[in-house]
Amino acid sequence: MKRRESMALLGCAAAAWPLAARAQQAGKLPTIGFLVAGTPSSHGQWVAALVRRLHELGWIEGRTVTIEYRWAEGRTERFDEIAAEFVRRKVDVIVTSATAAIVAAKQATSVIPIVFAAAGDPVETGLVASLARPGGNVTGLSIQQTDVAAKRLELLREVVPGLRRLAILGNVDGPAVLLDMREVQTTARPLGLEVVTSEIRRGEDIAPAFETLKGRADALYVCIDPLAHSHRIRINTLALAARLPTMHGSREPVEAAGLMSYGPNHPDLWRRAADYVDKILRGAKPGDLPVEQPRKFDLVINLTTAKALGLEIPPTLLATADEVVE
């Protein structure tokens, strides 16, 4: 590590020292409870981005802060269990993402601060009173999930000639997913698209869902959600077998053979979530910290998948892509 970087990290650690010292004098370090909605494979890179930023801010795991990780593996029933455990352990702040997990944490405690790294639509789903003044014990970053539905459909229509029948795959246990599905249906109607929805609630529902879609769709819109994200390889494998081009909400499914994605840069969101944790551990109230929105949206295209499906990506679209997977 360069001397300048070392000095910067030492400076951050020194800035965190007063709170860390008080915590140590009280017998324990401040504790962050990490309710990770997915798996180490699906969410590990995002979690790492947040932890790196905490380190930059002086919160060094095992030295100035304790982090308890719990992986829900996309299973909605685990959210309540983990949230209850963190309340029993009296953690200082709970960090999570995905509306269903945030709801579980909010229902478990009205006292412990909750920071969400990504929420579909926190106002519409009742997580916060408003983006500017969240109130209560919850704040974080919104991905404004429904705001980009029209853009995703526009991109799909550019890539899939003659798109007439659209399938939507979504975990209906997710409140934000229901909003997303509704928005896609509303947007598709004036475009003359026939829409068929396929509902899932657990990993075991995915294969049967594709069976019901056989011959009924020209493309598949996958609603971003911990369950779908954790099972992105299976979803894309089945979609390729059914020759269905897929649209996703983040880049990771495109790395796993999905056709394309358009959505916020999640590592950046999670990194910014660390700033909320830092402020709260230093005494800020979550209800006073405005909910922020994405700064950057990424278009990612998988050319290998496009070739396998016999699709030609328009050169103008390739030129605007933030990343092309080959």
Topology at a glance:
Layout: H1 3-25, E1 31-36, H2 40-56, E2 66-71, H3 76-89, E3 93-96, H4 99-108, E4 114-119, E5 138-142, H5 149-159, E6 165-171, H6 175-188, E7 194-200, H7 206-213, E8 219-222, H8 226-230, H9 232-241, E9 246-248, H10 252-255, E10 260-264, H11 266-281, E11 297-302, H12 303-308, H13 315-320, E12 323-325
Parallel strand pairs: 1-2, 1-3, 3-4, 4-5, 6-7, 6-8, 8-9, 9-10, 11-12
Antiparallel strand pairs: 10-11
Characteristic terms for this protein:
326 residues; alpha/beta; Rossmann fold; 2 domains; seven-stranded mixed β-sheet; five-stranded parallel β-sheet; 12 strands; 19% strand; elongated; disordered N terminus
Your description of this structure?
By secondary structure, the protein is of the alpha/beta class. The protein has 2 domains: 3-144 and 265-296, Response regulator (Rossmann fold, 3-Layer(aba) Sandwich), CATH 3.40.50.2300; 146-264 and 298-325, 3-Layer(aba) Sandwich (Rossmann fold), CATH 3.40.50. It contains 13 helices and 12 strands. The strands form 2 sheets. A 7-stranded mixed sheet has the order 7-6-8-9-10-11-12, sandwiched between helices. A 5-stranded parallel sheet has the order 2-1-3-4-5, with helices on both faces. Strand 1, helix 2 (40-56) and strand 2 form a beta-alpha-beta unit. Helix 2 (40-56) packs across helix 11. It is elongated, with a radius of gyration of 21 Å. It starts with a helix and ends with a strand. The model is unreliable at 1-26 (pLDDT under 50).
